[in-house]
Amino acid sequence: MMEGLRRSLCELARSSGEDLAWFADQIEDAPLKNVQSRNLPMCDLLPEILVHSGKATSNVVSELLGVRRGLRWQQSYSEEDGFTREYLDAYGWVNFASPEGIYLSETVRVTIGYWGAGLQYREHNHVPEEFYVVLAGNAIFHSEGRSPRACGPGDVVHHKPYQNHSIDMSPGPLLAAAFWRGDDLLAKSDLG
Predict the structure, then answer these.
(1) What is the 3-state secondary structure (H, E, C) of 46-103?
(2) Most exposed of 12, 20, 28, 165 (fewest Cβ within 10 Å)?
C-alpha cells in the first residue's frame, strides 16, 4: 500500500514542474524501511481533507488516507517551543523519504504535513531549499521578499535556503508535501 503513495507522489512531482521532477527521480527507487507506526490526534482529522483536494492532488490524498494509520506521524515542536496543546492536537507530519524516512534517501527529504484550520505556522527558516506542494485545503504563504500568496491544491511555493517564511491556515485546513534538498536534511527549523 505504501507503494501507491510513493507512485502518486512521484507522478505529482513530475507534473508540478522540472525542479520537482528531480525529487521523483530520487525517491522512485529508494529502499523501503520498516518503521513503527505512530498516530497523533490529527490523524482523526485527516479524512475530512479529501473534499478539499484538487484533481491533480486527489490521488496522493486518497493514498495517504489509506495508509495513514500505518505511518509514523511526528511533530517538530512542543509546548516548550511555545506551541499550544490546541495547535499540537491539529498538527503533524510524516517523514516519507529522507535519511530516516519510510523510504531511505540521503539526497532529499519529503514530508507530508497537516495543519488544522486556523493555525499559524510561525516564521521559520532552514538550511535546505524547500518546495511546498499544496495537496488539499488552503493557506496563505508568507515568504520573505514576496507578497503573501493564497494557495490551494496543486500550487507550489518555493523557499530558498535560510529564507524566512510562515503559513497562515485561517482559510485551512492544509495538507501539503514539502520537498527539501541540500544540507542538514534532518535539522529542526529555526523559529524566527
Answers:
(1) HHHHHHHECCCCHHHHHHHHHHHHHCEEECCCCHHHCCCHHHHHCEEEEEEEECCCCE
(2) 28
Q: How far apart are CA 72 and CA 85, in angstroms?
A: 20
Mean pLDDT, the chain, whole residue set = 94
Other Cβ atoms within 10 Å of 144 Cβ, number:
14
Judge whether 171 and 138 are in contact, CB under 8 Å. yes
Question: 49 to each of 39, 58, 116, 124, 169, how far by Cα in Å?
Answer: 17, 10, 10, 25, 13
Does residue 96 contact residue 9 with C-beta atoms inside 8 Å? yes
Contact 92, 74 (CB under 8 A): yes
* DSSP string across 10-27: HHHHHHT-HHHHHHHHHH
Distance, CA of 132 to CA of 154 (rounded, Å): 10
Q: Which residues pair with 155 in a beta bridge?
A: none
Query: Rounded to two decimals, what is the model's pTM?
Result: 0.95
The per-residue pLDDT for range 19-35, each reduced to its tens digit, is 899 999 999 999 999 88
Chain centroid to CA 74: 11
Cell of 143: 515568504
What is the longest distance spanned by two Cα atoms in the chain? 42
